[in-house]
Known about the structure:
globular; alpha+beta; 4 helices
Amino acid sequence: MKDRWLAVGILIAVALVLGRALYVPPGYETIDYATVPLLPVERCNPPLLEAWEAMASGIPFENETARGAMLDMGFDANGSVTYLQFHFFADMEGEPWVHSAFVLRNGSAYLSSQRLDYRPPRPHPLGVLTAVDDIPFGEISYGERGMNLKVFHHEENRTYDDTYGNIYAIENGTFHPLREISFATAEVWHTIEIYPIREPLIIEANGKQQNENLKATRIDEDPRARVVFAPREIGLAEKVVYA
């Protein structure tokens, strides 16, 4: 009898462990969609709007609720896309979700959605995505290691000047150098930041840094980088001075 109750206790414990492992809280529920057809990945021509269209056709999100673009791209020294990650928030059936696309070098795209419990107060993602698509990537120098591009959102007041000669407006497929741009608004605003892939820190066995001359540099303080402002941000800025 004792062995029988022991066996029952073990079964209950196993059931509880499995139930806990299989239970996914609502804030972490995810949906993985079938791989979409290959997207066109060409040198200096990332498939940004194609990724948006693939998500719009493959994910049943409510477009009018879409908010908050988060974009991260990598380029090799030849200007070819090595990866593309894009996320935004949008409701499905009245519930908040975040939707993601991950595109590989060969154009394979993977889509997913994850349930959330909040909606960030940010603008529709297509505005900044269109601005990034407008960038003349063929005019960028990709250096020896390649470049990264990220979209950042900001909620604080800030001023950029031409100390490092790397601030631009993007309009009609053309970079326009800026002398100064400042923000003092309650609206969320974005920067599109293109910066070189840095040499990794190498730490020797004795704990000493091998490449001692390598120092951390903020993106907006790197003259090799470009801090780019979309038309929406130019309109939101308190002050814009073109060079």
